[in-house]
Design brief:
The structure holds two protein chains of two kinds. By secondary structure, chain A is an alpha/beta fold. Chain A has two domains: about 100 residues, Beta Polymerase, domain 2 (2-Layer Sandwich); about 35 residues, no CATH class. Chain A has five helices and nine strands. A five-stranded mixed sheet of chain A has the order 1-2-5-4-3. A two-stranded parallel sheet of chain A has the order 6-7. The termini of chain A are far apart. By secondary structure, chain B is of the alpha+beta class. Chain B has two domains: about 90 residues, no CATH class; about 350 residues, Cytochrome-c3 Hydrogenase, chain B. Helix content of chain B is about 45%, strand content about 10%. Chain B is built from 19 helices and eight strands. In chain B, strands 1-2-3 form a three-stranded antiparallel sheet. In chain B, helix 6 packs antiparallel against helix 13, helix 7 packs antiparallel against helix 8 and helix 8 packs antiparallel against helix 13. Chain B is globular and about 80 Å long. Classes of the chains: A alpha/beta, B alpha+beta. At the A-B interface, strand 3 and helix 3 of A face helix 3, helix 10, strand 6, strand 7 and strand 8 of B.
Chain lengths: ~200, ~450
């Protein structure tokens, strides 16, 4: 079964919850409603013809100025048909929850934890929804577009060490520019230690 | 009367309580009035008063931290083990100690500027990361199967040299963890030759940044193919010697056979890829099933294991080194002449003498360096068969030279997620063997 056939079978079975597939560079993308994603995934895995038995990747994407803001993207692969399929679920910022697919593929566990860690997208039903790359009490979601590249000051996990810690020398980036200054001389980024 | 020594399990032993175990670690106050921090054993009455009477002390579990700084965890990996005596009943790997924010950085620089960051993903095989990333961006541009043949052959040679190099480290470190130090040094000795070859090719032993979007940074130097052929001709003898040392060695077999069995269904369900997947019996290799570059023209086999234990993964990696030697020999024989870059003046830097004398080339150079390669809006997902598994790049582009989102699907990240399942039931000494056989790289796992 080619990805196109799989997408049309999905459309027959799930109706409006699954969008028309779009294709780019010979890859098929299907948009799925948030509430239908688990049953769509389970169908794709268990159906003997579709048999997308591997979940390669779950990513979060932040489309900053669009509504709904976040997107969870699933990349599926089928050993039998040797083809890929991409599923996308839009998640709004104020209701930042998506159902987990760990019941379909246990490998989604760590990927969803990373999406939670980096974007703050919570996964309903996840067995162990903790941060994975950052420490547990880290207060921000780093891959959101408003989080600056140079990072934000955050208290370290251990209170005693944090009390003694000096600010990191490269915090704020190696070249700190002051946006909004009146002339380019003020706005020009200067190295650390330069006046 | 023998008293059970004070165990760390006085901070809740349940798996969900592992977090409180970490937080509760500060509850434990060793006595500070002697020079060595001597543990104060309370008297048995106090202890009995503390623990519930129905509790059998011998069945309490110990929570042991195999910390991020450990000689055998192959990088900064922390594994919190829950032990019942010597047997592991639960394991929670903690990653993120090498997280550097590569994906955030990628959103702020052009595709070409990101290439040095890909070196540092799987830092044992930087050339293969370069190739995988360049192919992903070229897929976005729509040219990944239209590269000139010479470029494709050179990239395949880079990938296979990187594969041999990474497998040598994996095998050497794995053998060293099980106690066989000699193999480690034999492997690194061969890696020195590979490093010399890579240095002649790219200018750097380690962080190569060799590929560019649409081609390569430089052509192969004269005599390089001859050097590769010499290396590849003598490598199988070294591998044979390694095999003679270990494959039938009783200690090695006892430490690796039936240890860390990864069942086939679990490997597929968790998305494990690479030699780990093939060791579990799944015959899948992107170079055969979804070939890219010039792999369809090359003749090689895919080793597949049967049981899925550490020994199988060891054998799979050794055989993959042999197959990579075969591929390299064919590439050296068949290396075509021709350009190494895709023919698009807007994609690759023009020749310097033209940049300094002609206006059009100057404009191309300027736009390419400041704005980046002109990519169309859209998204692609491309996976390449890296030594550690399938390295995937998911690129969301809104047009222009800077990606909107770059997700790195890291094989080591996914391979490590299976650790809690396969460590259960083994003894502490097996942890090291299993970690070595999974052969992950924290740089890739944490990005």
């Amino acid at each position: 079964m080619t990805p196109l056939e799989a997408a049309s079978v999905l459309r027959e079975r799930f109706g409006e919850a699954v969008s028309q597939p779009s294709e780019f560079r010979e890859e098929l993308t299907v948009r799925v409603e948030r509430d239908a994603i688990v049953s769509v995934c389970r169908f794709l895995r268990d159906d003997p013809v579709a048999s997308f038995d591997v979940l390669s990747d779950v990513s979060g994407v932040d489309y900053q100025d669009e509504e709904p803001r976040f997107e969870v993207v699933y990349h599926l692969y089928s050993y039998k048909n040797a083809c890929w399929l991409r599923l996308k679920v839009r998640v709004p910022e104020d209701d930042c929850i998506c159902p987990t697919v760990t019941s379909v593929w246990p490998g989604a566990d760590w990927h969803e934890r990373e999406a939670f860690d980096m974007y703050g997208i919570a996964f309903r039903g996840h067995p162990n929804l903790r941060r994975i790359l950052m420490w547990d009490r880290y207060p921000y979601y780093p891959l959101r577009k408003e989080f600056p590249l140079a990072g934000k000051d955050a208290p370290l996990p251990d209170e005693d060490i944090d009390a003694q810690a000096k600010p990191s020398p490269m915090a704020g980036g190696p070249f700190v520019s002051a946006p909004g200054g009146p002339t380019t001389i003020e706005r020009e980024p200067r190295g650390k230690g330069e006046n | 009367m023998w008293e059970a020594p004070l165990r760390a399990d006085r901070f809740t032993p349940s798996m969900s309580g592992l977090r409180s175990a970490r937080e509760g670690a500060s509850d434990f106050q060793p006595s500070t009035d002697s020079m060595a921090t001597e543990i104060q054993l309370p008297d048995s009455a106090a202890r009995a008063a503390e623990t519930p009477t129905a509790h059998d002390t011998l069945s309490e579990k110990l929570v042991l931290n195999m910390g991020p700084s450990h000689p055998s965890t192959h990088g900064v990996l922390r594994v919190v083990l829950e032990l019942d005596g010597e047997i592991i009943t639960g394991a929670q790997p903690e990653v993120g100690y090498l997280h550097r924010g590569d994906e955030k950085i990628a959103e702020n620089m052009t595709y070409t500027q990101f290439i040095p960051y890909t070196d540092r993903l799987d830092y044992l095989a930087p050339l293969s990361n370069n190739v995988a990333y360049s192919l992903a961006v070229e897929k976005l541009l729509g040219i990944h199967d239209e590269l000139p043949p010479r470029c494709q052959y050179i990239r395949v040679m880079c990938c296979e040299l990187a594969r041999i190099s990474a497998h040598l480290v994996g095998l050497g470190a794995f053998a060293m963890d099980t106690g066989a130090m000699t193999v480690f040094l034999y492997a690194f000795n061969e890696r020195e030759t590979i490093y010399n070859l890579i240095e002649a090719l790219t200018g750097a032993r380690f962080t190569t940044s060799y590929t560019r979007i649409g081609g390569l940074s430089r052509d192969i130097p004269d005599g390089w193919l001859g050097e590769v052929r010499k290396f590849v001709d003598q490598l199988p003898r070294v591998i044979e010697e390694v095999e003679k040392l270990l494959n039938r060695n009783k200690i090695f077999i006892d430490r690796t056979q039936k240890v860390g069995i990864l069942p086939r269904e679990m490997a597929i369900a968790y998305g494990v890829t690479g030699p780990n997947l093939r060791g579990s019996g799944v015959e899948f290799d992107l170079r055969k099933n979804h070939p890219y570059l010039c792999y369809p023209e090359l003749d090689f086999d895919i080793p597949v294991g049967t049981v899925g234990d550490c020994y199988d993964r060891w054998l799979v990696r050794i055989e993959e080194i042999r197959q990579s030697c075969r591929i390299l020999q064919q590439c050296v024989q068949k290396m075509p002449e021709g350009p190494i870059n895709y023919n698009d003046p807007k994609l690759l830097l023009p020749k310097k003498e033209k940049v300094l004398t002609k206006m059009e080339e100057l404009i191309h150079q300027f736009i390419l360096v400041t704005e980046g390669p002109p990519c169309p809006p859209g998204e692609v997902y491309f996976e390449a068969e890296n030594p550690k598994g399938q390295l995937g790049f998911y690129i969301v582009s809104k047009g222009g030279g800077v990606p909107w989102r770059l997700k790195i699907r890291s094989p080591s990240f996914v391979n490590l997620s299976v650790l809690p399942e396969i460590l259960k039931g083994h003894m502490i000494a097996d942890v090291v063997a299993i970690l070595g056989s999974i052969d992950f790289v924290m740089g890739e796992c944490d990005r």
